[in-house]
Design a protein that fits this description.
It is a single chain. The chain is elongated. It has a six-stranded antiparallel beta barrel with strand order 1-2-5-4-3-6. A six-stranded parallel beta sheet has the order 10-9-8-7-11-12, with helices on both faces. The chain has 14 helices and twelve strands. Helix 2 runs parallel beside helix 8 and helix 7 packs antiparallel against helix 8 (178-202). The protein is an alpha/beta fold.
C-alpha cells in the first residue's frame, strides 16, 4: 500500500469514527421503548452536524493538502459527506417532528415566539430551510451559473452549522447526558477556530507573498506571469502538473492557475492565465513589482504518467496545455516511451507555447504532437475538435490500451470522457483536470 493510499484511509477512518460513535453518548439516558424516535432524531442531528463540520474543515485546502495531497479525491469526499449530512439532518427533522406530534401534540412546522425555547427550535427550522435552498439550487442552477456566482451562493452554507449549534445548545435538557452537551461545546469551539483560520487565510495572512517579475504576451488572450517569492520562507517545492491559487492584494477572491514553469533554485514560478472571466482577465493587466498572495501547490494530475506502463495520450484544449508542459520537460530528459499530445484550439493564433513544444520535441523525438484547429487553414493540422475518430486515426481502433490525461474546457472534457468510455477505455485510465475562469 503506497503512502498516499494510507493517508486517505487514515483521513476516512478519522471522519468515520467520529460520526457513528456520537449517538452512543445518548444511549444511557433514553428509555428505548418510549423515546426511540427521539433517540434516532438526536443521533442523526449529532452525526449530521459532525459531518457538516468536516465539510467545512475539508475546504481548508492548505491544511488538508498536508495530509492528503490528492485534492481531486478530497473534493469527491467533500461532496459525498455533504450528501450524507443532508440525509441525516433531513432524517432528524422527520423523526423529531413525528415524536413531538405523537408524544406532545406539538407541530414543529409552526414558527412561534411565545416561549423561550421556541427561538431555538426556529433556528433549527431555518438551518433546515437553508439546506433545502442549497440542495434545490445545486440541482437546478449549478450548470447555469458561473463558478464565481456558484461559489458566492455556496458560501451561505457556512450559516447552516452555526444555526444548528444554536438550536442544539439552546434545547439541551437535563435528561441529555453531560457528555453529549460537551460534544456540542467542543464542536462550537472547533467551528470558531475554523472561522478564525479562514478569516486570516482569506485575507492572505497565512499565504506566501510573491512579487511579479514580468508579464509577457504568449498567445491570443494568454499572458505569462512570472512570480518570485519575496523571501526564502515563502518558497515551496513544486511537482509537474500542479497548480497554485493566486489572490490580489485588497481582494478576497483567489483562483487556481496551473504552473507552466518553475525553477527550484530561485523559487520562480510561471503561470499562463487566459482571459476567460473577470478574474483571469483582470490579472493579465498586473504590472511587474506588484505583490500577490499565493497558496499551494496542489494536485497530482500527471503523477500517473510516471508510474503507468501503458503508452500515454495527452488531450489538451486551449490553455489546458499548461499542466502538461512541466511534465513534458521532465520526461524529455530521458523519454523512452510513447507519448502523443493532441492539442486543440479554435484558431491557429490561439496556440500557446508552440516554441516550448518544439524545444521539447527536439529533445524527445518520440513525442508526437497533433494539432487540432476548429477554424483550420493549415494542411498540417487536423480540422474541427478532438474526437474519437481523430484519436483512432493516430492511435488505431484499440484505444483502450492507452492511458489518457485530459485538460480543457468543461464541454470538451465531458465529450471526450463519454467518447472514451464508449470505446471501452476503463475509467481508471482516464485522468482529468478541470479549470475555471
Amino acid at each position: 500500500m503506497n503512502v498516499n493510499r494510507r493517508k486517505k484511509l487514515l483521513l476516512l477512518a478519522i471522519i468515520g469514527s467520529m460520526g457513528p460513535l456520537v449517538p452512543a453518548l445518548d444511549f444511557t439516558k433514553f428509555n428505548l421503548s418510549v423515546d426511540l424516535l427521539a433517540l434516532a432524531a438526536r443521533s442523526m442531528a449529532l452525526s449530521g452536524s459532525v459531518l457538516l463540520m468536516w465539510e467545512y474543515i475539508l475546504t481548508a485546502r492548505a491544511l488538508v493538502v498536508k495530509i492528503v495531497p490528492d485534492t481531486a479525491w478530497v473534493q469527491r469526499i467533500h461532496r459525498r459527506i455533504g450528501h450524507l449530512a443532508v440525509y441525516l439532518i433531513g432524517g432528524h427533522f422527520i423523526f423529531i417532528t413525528i415524536f413531538y406530534a405523537q408524544s406532545r401534540g406539538i407541530n414543529l412546522l409552526n414558527f412561534l415566539f411565545n416561549r423561550p425555547e421556541q427561538f431555538y427550535k426556529n433556528m433549527g427550522i431555518l438551518s433546515l430551510l437553508l439546506i433545502v435552498v442549497l440542495v434545490i439550487t445545486s440541482i437546478t442552477l449549478r450548470s447555469k451559473l458561473s463558478f464565481r456566482s456558484w461559489h458566492k451562493l455556496h458560501l451561505t452554507s457556512y450559516l447552516v452549522l452555526p444555526l444548528a449549534l444554536i438550536h442544539n445548545l439552546g434545547l439541551a435538557r437535563e435528561d441529555v447526558p453531560i457528555s453529549a452537551n460537551w460534544y456540542w461545546y467542543l464542536m462550537t469551539f472547533i467551528y470558531v477556530c475554523f472561522l478564525v483560520y479562514m478569516y486570516l487565510f482569506s485575507r492572505g495572512k497565512l499565504k506566501q507573498r510573491y512579487e511579479i517579475q514580468l508579464v509577457d504576451k504568449e498567445a491570443v488572450k494568454v499572458v505569462n506571469i512570472h512570480l518570485l517569492p519575496e523571501s526564502s520562507r515563502d518558497r515551496f517545492a513544486v511537482h509537474p502538473g500542479q497548480y497554485i491559487y493566486v489572490q490580489r492584494q485588497g481582494s478576497l477572491e483567489s483562483h487556481p492557475f496551473s504552473i507552466s514553469k518553475f525553477d527550484h533554485s530561485t523559487g520562480l514560478i510561471s503561470i499562463a492565465p487566459k482571459a476567460l472571466g473577470p478574474f483571469s482577465g483582470a490579472i493579465q493587466h498586473m504590472q511587474a513589482g506588484e505583490v500577490v498572495y499565493v497558496d499551494g501547490p496542489y494536485g497530482n494530475f500527471t503523477e500517473e504518467i510516471y508510474t503507468s506502463r501503458r503508452p500515454v495520450v495527452l488531450l489538451a484544449g486551449g490553455i489546458g496545455i499548461v499542466p502538461f508542459l512541466p511534465t513534458l520537460y521532465r520526461l524529455a530528459e530521458g523519454m523512452n516511451r510513447e507519448i502523443i499530445l493532441f492539442y486543440g484550439n479554435n484558431t491557429e493564433a490561439e496556440i500557446a507555447f508552440n516554441d516550448e513544444l518544439a524545444e521539447i520535441r527536439s529533445k524527445a523525438p518520440s513525442l508526437k504532437v497533433v494539432y487540432v484547429i476548429r477554424d483550420n487553414q493549415n494542411s498540417m493540422y487536423e480540422t474541427g475538435f478532438i474526437t474519437l475518430e481523430i484519436l483512432q486515426k493516430y492511435l488505431g481502433n484499440d484505444v483502450a490500451k492507452y492511458e489518457f490525461f485530459v485538460c480543457g474546457p468543461p464541454v470538451m472534457m465531458s465529450n471526450l470522457q463519454k467518447a472514451l468510455a464508449a470505446a471501452q477505455v476503463p475509467q481508471n485510465q482516464i485522468h482529468t483536470e478541470a479549470f475555471s475562469a
